[in-house]
Amino acid sequence: MPLGLIEPTQRRDSIGEVVCVPAQSFLSFFPDCCRFISYTFCGNTILNSKLIGATLIVAGTSIGAGMLALPIAVANIGFWPAMILMALIWSLSGYTALLLTEANLRTGKGLNFHKMVGNILGPVGQVLCSASFLALLYALTAAYLTGGASLIGVKAQALLDIKLESTTSTLIFACTLGLVAAFGVKYVDLLTRGLFTLKMVALMILVALLVPKTEVANLQFALSYFDGSLWMAALPLIFTSFGFHVCIPPLVKYLDGDLKQIRMAFLLGSGLPLLCYSLWLLAVMGPLGAEQLKLLAQGDGLANLVGAMTELTGSGRIGTLVTLFADLALVTSFVGVTLSLYEYLKELRGGEVGRVGNWLVTFAPPLVLALAMPKGFIAVLGFAAIPLAVLIVFLPVAMALKSREASQGYQVAGGKGAMALATVAGGLIVIAQLL
Fold this sequence. Notes:
The protein has helices spanning 24-29, 31-42, 49-62, 66-73, 79-107, 113-160, 166-176, 178-183, 185-210, 228-240, 248-254, 259-288, 290-296, 301-313, 316-348, 355-372, 377-383, 385-406, 415-434; strands spanning 10-12, 18-20. By secondary structure, the protein is mostly helical. It has one domain (10-434): Up-down Bundle (Amino acid/polyamine transporter I). The protein has a two-stranded antiparallel ribbon. Mean pLDDT is 79; it is low at 2-47.
């Protein structure tokens, strides 16, 4: 998920959970293109704006700043093993999304995540859900604070010849962009609509410019790539890049419970991030190679990666585009996640504190973590995989198992065997992060 939780357009329900609505302004840039793709792939199945909007919501919720760290996270296993892992995680994500859809249809079409868990698993399930949701948002906020601080430090050095301490740059990032969350969803909506579109355009331009610089030798297998421990180490961050499940309940309602359209929205919406991540890995790993990426991972991996890509292009303008893309990826993800956290905490506290108090509760814990781990962008993103596994693997499996005992209706194919495999996969992701 990381994961821009409020991209491109979302609002909040009565308990502070994310409710997604179609990104009409985003669609307005590409209406003919979207209709053409819809017709080409699906005939008359999805020739409607609802499904196009739902597809883009799934994609926008998945694609976040975590993709910046993907090349470094998978450097030890190489390009092709990374592609295999992403395909497996994509399959797991799609399967558990259907399990959540099944649970949502059984409890009431469009019932929000919190109430859905409570109806099936009771108060204990709700507590686990809320705790995991908060842990996920706090971890993502801390990760984006460290990433944003890193890029601010690079800019201060390059433009002003000033070397900022990590503490200073972290506080600057938190106290500027962090204020956006206090202004509410209306302003975040306006900000993320344009920035998300610009981010995707920048990504496509970068891919077009960098892929021709690919060296085939950088994409070949090596014996070291078959080390299982290296594959395990890459799992958590890849997993966090495919979390769109928070939007499933409102999307089920928005698509009127039409399973054919829901499945198509999940397929196309999660397939777009898979395509973007694959192109991004090709654009970075092809020219740079795994060995150079391993060296970049030492120290401030994000800043080193941006610097290496800027140098690789040999062009000041292209270097500016690289930096712009990194900035947009961080900003759109950060404002979306922090708004989600700010609003959720406001609901939990029942409006007992004002904006200042709620802002402090929102940012103090992740700020402490970011200051303690100034170079922890990748590490903290990896930690986010633990609460995310609870939310989008363990809880959906538990709800499906329990709800099938009590009622009939739509069931995802695969039975208990598939759910057991999903549970094992979720367990491996958690273990990989803890090792």
